[in-house]
Design a protein that fits this description.
elongated; mainly alpha; Cytochrome Bc1 Complex, Chain D, domain 2; 3 domains
Length: about 260
């Protein structure tokens, strides 16, 4: 009798057993393990298989509830946000900011991995605080610190930091050279807009930070986070779309340029 024949019951049963083991292993590795690891956050069987196969998925901060996964932020950004009298708000914010000085300095001049908050638009600081609290912008440092802040506390902090003069910490690369081409012109062939169209002081876009004087290490870390998909709280994917094609050298050049301004 031919060994590799369907008439050979030993061959048939061997193939059937191997196929059953392979199917069981595929179900465990491609479906059960990804779904268990994601804590039931997967939307479908197909998405579980794609996740296990390494197919990039949509940005999903792990701390967010399922209904919020499709949105980059829980803040509605508009031109008039954070408008109105803020005198008392600044005073309350100054008191709250005493707990922020270890990283952001007594005058909001961040250094190292902390951003420069002095003189930032109130809407920009407020949005980031809200995103930290909601989980849209995951952070092992800021996440726990904002848990006890009310919405009014965040508005007060944002108003206070916006009232400060834009002093600068030490800038080792100040005047290091002309602005990179990406700052002024972007790169249309790679669908990268000019950085200055959004982040210049004169642009004054709601909830958009001014980058001048920001610490170089902080800027580089955030650009890499946008590029690599570890940060996704930008509206309409503007930063992710702009950063996805940046090389490490371009990130260093842009970060050094803005840190030196």
């Amino acid at each position: 009798m031919n060994t590799f024949s369907l008439r050979n019951p030993w061959f048939v049963w061997s193939v059937a057993i191997v196929a059953a083991i392979a199917c069981a292993a595929a179900l465990v590795g491609m479906v059960w393990v990804p779904r268990a690891h994601a804590r039931a956050a997967m939307e479908s069987l197909w998405e579980s298989v794609c996740r296990a196969a390494g197919v990039p998925a949509a940005y999903r901060p792990a701390a967010l509830p399922e209904t919020a996964h499709g949105y980059p932020s829980g803040v509605i950004v508009h031109a008039a946000m954070m408008a109105g009298p803020q005198g008392a708000s600044r005073g309350r914010g100054a008191t709250l900011a005493m707990g922020c000085t270890m990283c952001h300095g007594a005058r909001g001049t961040g250094s190292g991995g902390a951003p420069h908050l002095a003189g930032q638009a109130a809407s920009s600081t407020y949005k980031q605080l809200r995103d930290f609290a909601s989980g849209h912008r995951p952070s092992a440092v800021m996440g726990p610190l904002v848990l006890d802040l009310s919405d009014q506390d965040m508005r007060d902090l944002a108003a206070y930091y916006a009232s400060l003069d834009r002093e600068h910490a030490a800038r080792p690369h100040a005047g290091a050279g002309d602005s990179p081409r990406l700052v002024k012109n972007g790169d249309p062939m790679r669908a990268i807009g000019a950085c200055a169209s959004c982040h210049a002081v004169s642009a004054a876009r709601p909830a958009t930070p001014v980058l001048d004087g920001m610490p170089e290490t902080y800027l580089a870390a955030q650009l890499r986070a946008f590029r690599d998909g570890r940060r996704g709280n930008d509206l309409h994917r503007q930063m992710r779309n702009a950063a996805h094609g940046l090389s490490d050298g371009e990130i260093v050049a842009l970060s050094r340029y803005y840190a030196g301004r």
